[in-house]
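Customer ticket, subject: "Can you confirm the structure for Carbohydrate kinase family protein?"

Message body: Hello, I'm evaluating your service for our small team and ran a test protein. I'd like someone to confirm that this is what the system normally returns, since I don't have a reference to compare against.
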Amino acid sequence: MSAIIVAGETLVDMLPGPGETLVDVEGFTHRPGGAPANVAVGLSRLGAEPALWTRLGDDPFGDFLRETLANEGVSGTLIERIDGNTTLAVVSPPGVDGRRFRFYGSRAVTFGFDPASVPTAALESRSWVHLGGVALTHPSGRAAMRELAERAGDRGCAVSFDVNYRPDLVPADEREAVRDAIRSIVADSDVVFCSDEDVEAAGLSSLEGADLARDLLSLGPHTVAVTLGADGALVASTAAAPWGEREARHGGFPVDAVDATGAGDAFTSGLLSRLSTVTTDLDAAVAFANATAALSVRERGGMTALPTAEAVEEFLANRR
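Agent reply: Thanks for trying us out. I re-ran your input and got the following:
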């Protein structure tokens, strides 16, 4: 499997206990999280050896996350410890309309990546770089992620990008700058991961499904993966993709869902684990990614519920 660098935030998900709203909840359980960190751990469990460029606060939650990543086999060489508090993402109870996450803590600590710290040397031994979109909500993070994408492309690395737009983290006077950065990185990427909600909120497109994928392909990437919630996912690509001009759609797998937190990250890790081997069977790759996501929602916690490669293969074998 190709060596992958994942770049972006690691934080703590605060999962609510019983209650219809956050006001009713009597307590929370903390779990490791952050979309890029989830993807890195997902790749590790699927047999890769990813490196993660991320920032942790110099606090007990940062210690907890650092130990968790080490135990999951994620290389610590690119993990930075920053003076300040690690960000907490408070998850709303199931069924609550509106905001799913509320963020607490320092934006600068978790999202303020320094462009001067871009791990250029590490690119020499890696063939793929995956970027998370939430870091673009911070001015320094925007500059750093754009620099990393540019340097990775210059060195022949494949670049993938998860749009993952979080408007609650974007001050009103920075919205256009964030959207410009998202559009720029989409154009510089080979593979883009998204949902129609994220893309519309980011001002990229108001289309859905296959029409959305084709719209984003026109911006520059050769492959676009669109997650469709309970309807599975579709992946479209141009002739420039190693797997050729294709459209692969998979309806997902029915499971008894307990917690959907991180399901999209599980899908991303599953698809990346296949595409980074330069597979030509896009249909099988999407099915594998959907199976990874299906297994992840059967337990609580975005990172802790991520499956192993053996579990995914067994799951698929039982459904053939």
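A couple of notes from the result: The mean pLDDT is 92. The radius of gyration is 18 Å. Feel free to reply with more questions.
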